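Summary for the funding panel

The consortium committed to producing paired sequence-structure records for every protein in the target list. Below we show the first two records in order, beginning with the earlier of the two.
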Amino acid sequence: MRSRSSSIASSTSSSSDAAAMESSQIFVKLLNGETIPLALPSNTTISTLRHLISLRLSLPAPSFRLQHAGHHLTSPSSPLTTLPPNTTIDVTLPIRGGAPKKIRCTFKDCKDHAQRIVGDCSFCQGQFCGKHRMLEDHKCSGLEDCKKESHERNADKLNSERTLVVKGI
């Protein structure tokens, strides 16, 4: 009997050893600098790890990145067995921004850069290069309105400068 019980005990200890071998421990360094240990099964994928961390941080999974040794862990289906045991994974925020995008001329078939300030059309709200910045050149839809405004301004100016003849002097 003792041999049976010892064999049962050894088989249960070997199965618990196998379960211990199947799980691995990793450390996750959070955004605030806190490091948390995680014991995960060996078949855990990166997407599962992202989901666990998003639950812990109360953030949606797409709003942060996972890094190991300076490289982003991007493949969601790859298992964590590719990482060495007792490794540290950093949680980082994605980089936003960069250089401002060059504004292109909005005239059809023109690929030139739009000129700042002088290339902005206040009538059609377009942005144009040096060749198309004039209303006539980019065939502005507000060209008639512009002509009417200009005509009214000139008429008002002429009326204000008109000399009146005083009769009877």
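The next record, for a separate protein in the list, is shown here:
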Amino acid sequence: MVITTNPPTTTTLHPISFPAPVFAALSPAPYLLAHLQPPTPHTPPLRPSGRAPSDFRPPAAHTGSLTHASGSAVVRVGDTAAVCGVRGEILLASSIAGRNKRGTRRRKEDEDEDDEEGEIADLGLLVPNLELATGCSPSHLPGSPPSVLAQSLSWRILTLLHATRLVSASDLRIWHQPARLVSSSEEDDEEAEEPEIKAFWVLYIDILFISLDGNAFDAAWGAVLGALGDTRVPNAWWDGDRETVLCDDAVAKAHKLRLNGWPVACSFAVFEPRVGGRTGGEDSKGKAAWVLADPDAFEEGLCRESVTVVVDLEEGGRTKVCRVEKVGGGVVGGGEMRGLVGMAEGRWREWRGVLGR
């Protein structure tokens, strides 16, 4: 009796593979790490968007988009888009509590000696408001109250406006030259000839995000810069007979705001696999963190440390660091900060070319 046996069949096991969007949704940190840590040392690290860690998304801007605003700008950085409109309203000096008539009188030639930052901040002459439109991102649902992100961005923009003194208080003052009165006292005549501040312009800066894909502050600040650079304030004067401020409808007589510099914000995020991604340690090269320029929404959700550098290039090529904001972590030190400032200088030139400053 002959027994025949069939040869054993070998089963080939195929590895399970997922499409990139599924891999990113199931394991976001390993997905980002797989891009930043290429399999071969000759392959440069690239982010999922195809950018290098130090690459910014190209900005685009268009000013004067809103017809019924004093100034406006539409800014787009990647898939993040924001619209900013500036409108001016008049604040009478007589309606300001604690401001007497003598406190509004001064000489115009002494305007630069005043504490403009304190006057703008104390009187609230700049009022930014940021809103995240429904549908700008999956995390913002219709009918929701103002988010913490919107309120924090509004506050950061307000403090940066005050810190950089971007808008001059002299552009927001409405002066009145009192008529000379016939008097026997020379002191009364001199006091009557002094100009008097009758009102101020209050600029309401409204920012609306129509699309949000990370790095909201840089896009919002770029929109504010473009809108303020496009703002024209009507020619206004005090009418003593009517006891009110009148404005000229002629656009040719309106004056543009004189911005003090051109500060540009550049944000960075630090990706730490051990902390943020919990991948278990460093890679084979010993690199434990990557500094990502202009992070998108996917990268921001995986980064614990963020840095925002605000720089302005003055005449002669001198770089002025206006502000540095750092949140979380301790990867970025003094040496790394110098490199970020250098990257911010190149970003400043990009924004200058886009906004046509």
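Regarding this second record: The chain has a mean pLDDT of 84. The first strand starts at residue 59 and ends at 63.
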